[in-house]
């Protein structure tokens, strides 16, 4: 009798996102680095995750936290060296942890050799064809070539000055001016990134997270968006030619041993659009932003979960589940608001949040995500229940969105504050010199790894237990679930193998199903007047048949 082969690791992995700058500082300069990560690998192994995803560690002027890359084949000195990265990959593997690195193909840095060559080469040069240089409109060419707006605010175009001092053409940057968009119609661009893939695959990385995966290709002629755009048909995203790029990349990845993987950052309004990126010859998975943005309400969560499973089924791709990342408001803070939904266009950073309620719901949400079919992503600090730092002094903010929006958008630094490792010291163990590139709130000492490790009821120990039980009860099983009606404020389903997840998003307690035993609960259960256990509001429980 032949046994069914085990599913590929990436179909059910728990992947931990490391924002290197804020994880741990090994050399004492106040900025997280690879040495700090290497020192903390035992913590990540004990946590119970399967893989690590690193935000960009490449050479960069850091105009956008490393997403402005000047050299894709080397490590920025603030993080370490290429040799250290190679050692980190090896050591992570020794700890049973796979490594995924961020790839930023939509744009590079204005300090990248290609862009610097383009500026000096002059009008009409081949060097400029690797980017989107276009003449401006108007008699003097002083109006941008089209009406596209940067994601960071303001026009998506900047005009250059030629070497002789005359005004030159404009170049496209869908993000900051320091991040010129690459022209993916140019063969040099395609060849360059295929070589970059080979470079890191040869060094043992297990996969790539693709930044702005939907945005590489642009519509021919770069037409205006217009006054009433269709969000499903924009000229700078989800253009058909982008799929040719990923088909070529998939062939490269599949030529290497070891089940290498791609995960795409695909922000699109239509699930059918997003599913096309997950066809068997393209990307392996993509982030589930609908789930991240969903309010803490059972009907909305059920709808997103059901829609996700239905959308992935035709292409055979595993779903993923994520609550926070380096671009969003931490979900502990979001879930403590009156409106628990999230919108990248209006983060509502100043909205008040009940942190006690937010942490309670965040614990419940963690168990929900880990019980669902497919993969789960954890952002560093999720396991500590860290909230957003909502008020960072203006002079310390480094996110370019703050400047580009004239201060209307305070940016993403609030979710990037360095982790607290110990309860003492000015940087709480982040740096041996007690220096931190962003200030940590003093009350974070209570949520340090040190304090939580000693508390069996802590966020950290809940995550450790949940990740261990997830491997035993949920991971690697068929990517299906059976819904059970437990009331309008409940989410209840059974996974293959018999384990059940019950979530109460309401205020009234729910009765626990008879004949089942509790595997894990996000919070204390209560006793009804009859003496039976009930599930309080904003709590999740995992159940299994009696043995």
Summarize the structure.
Helix content is 24%, strand content 16%. It is of the alpha/beta class.
List the helices and strands and how they pair.
Elements: E1 14-18, H1 34-39, H2 41-47, E2 51-54, E3 58-59, E4 71-75, H3 82-94, E5 98-103, H4 113-121, E6 133-134, E7 157-161, E8 167-172, H5 187-201, E9 207-210, H6 242-254, E10 261-264, H7 271-275, E11 285-286, H8 289-293, H9 298-312, E12 320-322, H10 331-334, H11 355-371, E13 375-379, H12 400-404, H13 449-453, H14 459-473, E14 482-483, E15 490-494, E16 500-504, E17 510-511, E18 516-521, E19 526-527, E20 533-535, E21 539-545
Helix pairs in contact: 5-6, 11-14
Q: Radius of gyration from the CA trace?
A: 24 Å
The geometry reads as: globular
The overall strand count is 21
What percentage of residues falls in helices of 4 or more residues? 10-25%
First-to-last CA distance: 28 Å
Enumerate the strands of the largest sheet in spatial order, edge to edge or round the barrel: 11-10-9-5-2-1-13-12
Counting DSSP H or I runs of 4 or more residues, the number of helices is 14
Strand content: 15-25%
Q: How would you characterize the largest beta sheet? A: 8 strands, parallel
- Structural class comes to alpha/beta
Characterization of this structure:
The chain has 547 residues and is of the alpha/beta class. 24% of the residues lie in helices and 16% in strands. The chain is built from 14 helices and 21 strands. It has helices at residues 34-39, 41-47, 82-94, 113-121, 187-201, 242-254, 271-275, 289-293, 298-312, 331-334, 355-371, 400-404, 449-453, 459-473, and strands at 14-18, 51-54, 58-59, 71-75, 98-103, 133-134, 157-161, 167-172, 207-210, 261-264, 285-286, 320-322, 375-379, 482-483, 490-494, 500-504, 510-511, 516-521, 526-527, 533-535, 539-545. Strands 11-10-9-5-2-1-13-12 form an eight-stranded parallel β-sheet. It has a five-stranded antiparallel β-sheet with strand order 14-15-16-21-18. α5 (187-201) packs parallel to α6 (242-254). The chain starts with 13 loop residues before the first strand and ends with a strand.
